[in-house]
Hints:
The chain is α/β, with parallel strands linked by helices. It is 43% helix and 14% strand. It has helices spanning 17-34, 41-51, 67-75, 92-101, 136-149, 163-169, 172-179, 188-196, 199-214, 218-227, and strands at 55-59, 82-85, 105-107, 124-128, 153-156, 233-240, 249-256. It has a 7-stranded mixed sheet, with helices on both faces. β4 (124-128), α5 and β5 (153-156) form a beta-alpha-beta unit. The chain is globular, with a radius of gyration of 17 Å. 42% of the residues are buried. The model has no long low-confidence stretch (mean pLDDT 94).
Amino acid sequence: MRRRHLIELEDLNWWPATFRNGVTEYLVTTQRASRTYLKFVPRLAEALRRSGATRIIDLCSGAGGPWPDLLPALRAQGLELSICLTDKYPNVAALKGITRQLPGVTFEPTGINATDVPSRLVGFRTLFTAFHHFKPEKAQAILASAIRDGQGIAIFEGTARSPVALATMFLIPAMVWLLTPGVRPFRWGRLLWTYVLPVLPLAILFDGLISCLRTYTPAELLAMAQQAGGKNFDWEAGLERPLGSPFCVPYLIGVPRHPAL
Length: 261
């Protein structure tokens, strides 16, 4: 299946923050309900040990990502970590909630460009369910930025470019209607845009289908890493089936052979 970089609503500058935040908050709820990314803990923990990093710079964090489950699981592996959450369009209310819930977690209240991370944000970089948003040249720039700064990077998707993944997306409206009462922070507007005027279920379905068509394969991820100049990094790419998922998703992990101090 050929990759197609069609437009997701979430990427549009004019897409209202009410809907953008509604989508990211729903995605966080599904990740936490299914504990999607716990399957990746051993790989991520090993990469962090090899890099020597004690701080993670999470890019494209949305409403906070999987960290309420993932950070305790990593700490249970004996890692002492702090996390800085960043996003181009930070959902400040949701990110504040995460920082209150998790000691050692902070966030950047202003927009951070994942293709050119400021030098003051030093740490191992992660992206969850986000890398497919970037066209190849921008995606390669994210990798080149990490390589240039000597920082490890791990990319974990939540979609795949496969018929099974596309078919699964059609369950989204039912899942949105089912899970919305548990989405936090609670907003009356979310009920309106879900049950009265179903903008959010349809928007999440649309973006989910486009996300599948945009998702890079492991071979494409490795090729971008090499083209970005990652010869002094050790790279691993592959497919993994997240907990509760009917399909496998791609990942890429890069660790510098001589980590930056």
